[in-house]
Amino acid sequence: MKNKDQNWFLVKPKKIPGLEPDFCPPVLANQHFREEALRSGKSEPLAIAVEADNGLVSNYTTPVFAKGDPRFDSNLKYVERIVKFLLWQRGGWRVVIGGPKEIGQYIKEIYSPKGKRAFDAGLMAEVYSHPFTVETTSADKIPADRQNAKPLGRHLEGCRIGFDLGASDRKVAAVKDGQAVFSEEVVWDPKGHSDPKYHFDEIMAALKKAAGYLPRVDAIGGSAAGIYVNNSVRIASLFRGVPKDLFEKKIRGLFGDIQKAWNNIPFEVINDGEVTALAGSMSLGVNRILGIAMGSSLAAGYVDKEGNVVGWLDELAFAPVDYNPDAPVDEWSGDYGCGAMYFSQVAVNRLAVKAGIKLDEKRTLAERLKDVQKLANDGEKKAEKIFETIGVCFGYTVAHYADFYDLESILILGRVTSGKGGDILIKTAEETLKSEFPKLAKRIRLVVPDEASRRVGQAIAAASLPSASHGLPR
After folding, report:
1. Residue 103 phi/psi, 5° resolution?
2. What is the pLDDT of residues 147-180, one digit of tens each?
3. Can you tell me the distance from the alpha carbon of 316 to that of 313, in angstroms, rounded to the nearest whole number?
4. CA dihedral 301, 307, 311, 317 (to 10 degrees)
5. How many C-alpha atoms does 182 have within 13 Å on its Cβ side?
6. Taking the CA atoms of the chain, what radius of gyration do you get in angstroms?
7. Where are the domains of the chain?
8. 149-474: which CATH number, 3.40.50.720, 3.40.50.1010, 3.40.50.300, 3.30.420.40?
9. Residues sharing a CB contact under 8 Å with residue 91, sequence separation 6 or more, in sequence order
10. Which of 55, 153, 309, 326 has the fewest CB atoms within 10 Å, i.e. the most exposed one?
């Protein structure tokens, strides 16, 4: 397949997603590119280093076509997509390209304030409070890999509150010595409210209600969509309705204010994807697990072979999962083929149009998702085809993720996976993985928790985040 973006290496999948006939899986394209580069006999190594907070560095290496090869220009698009994935998987304010200077210069231009990836560069600068930079050097002078994996949560002693803030509902649980004694899910509309007081009051109301089921509160832990550093809100779609000046004054330190309201007891809030992975690791008793939540957007988190988190962003909503240059464009980032457009309620609503299903546009995306799910539960073939399409795309994407994560299990959560539609999605993904990547299918398990674990497991894991043993009664 050839196209204007020099993606000559794109490969049509053997299993075509019914409603996405032009889907181009990155895993197949990347494999084909590397094979052709090595087969040329003139390839050279290219190393990519991404630097985040406190000098932490993540490395990635790949062969590319050498200068003089007529396919040299195809390196540009290939490397750009890899850099894009690494930035949203691992996170960082500095990218170092160790290889041909032409490639480094292209990445520098496209991730400049006026480049196509200005959104990504700007977000990374905001997350890490540092100007975003791209540098070029030789492959042998790339910064050394430097990681800092650390334990996360698993503190179950005492009386705790766990909460989870999603785009369409908020959950809270009261947890005593690892057992949920109360849980509640409430519909809310955070993105539709510009007043920070709404957010403060809603979260406080949930915490106070949970506290009513405990003799005391020793610690509070929470998960929320977005990026959080030391309980500070860096980037979060939940608060997109809040004006920038109020965001800086009231939202940036929102959770610090809530902690003060609870007499500064141990309090920790992190990305909901990380808590998903932690919940999976705790409930299944396994590590090397990637947690995926298909909800209002796509959330992800990873626990390594030692049961630790490695400090990566894991914001896979913005990571490419389709190399088709005509793939749907994410309205926030302005980029095409990103995960949120394929594995979320946005995807279901988008594909419903392709399937010829008429939905009530006055209803929210979450409500329309339920309408589609009801059709699938009732055996409507058009609705079933939506979940089959998502399943095929996800099967190929699991293999793509396996190129960047050391995986044994993938825990799959979120409203999109509910009901018969969710069953079709998972089954189709497993079938796709087995038919196209049989070795990976034997190694990686796709796991869907039972309903009880879905409702409470995440909140228990969130409640386990802060260490509070020093403050417990003796």
Report:
1. -70, -45
2. 888 888 899 999 999 999 988 788 999 999 989 9
3. 8
4. -10
5. 16
6. 22
7. 40-141, 149-474
8. 3.30.420.40
9. 50, 52, 124, 127, 128, 312, 313, 315
10. 55
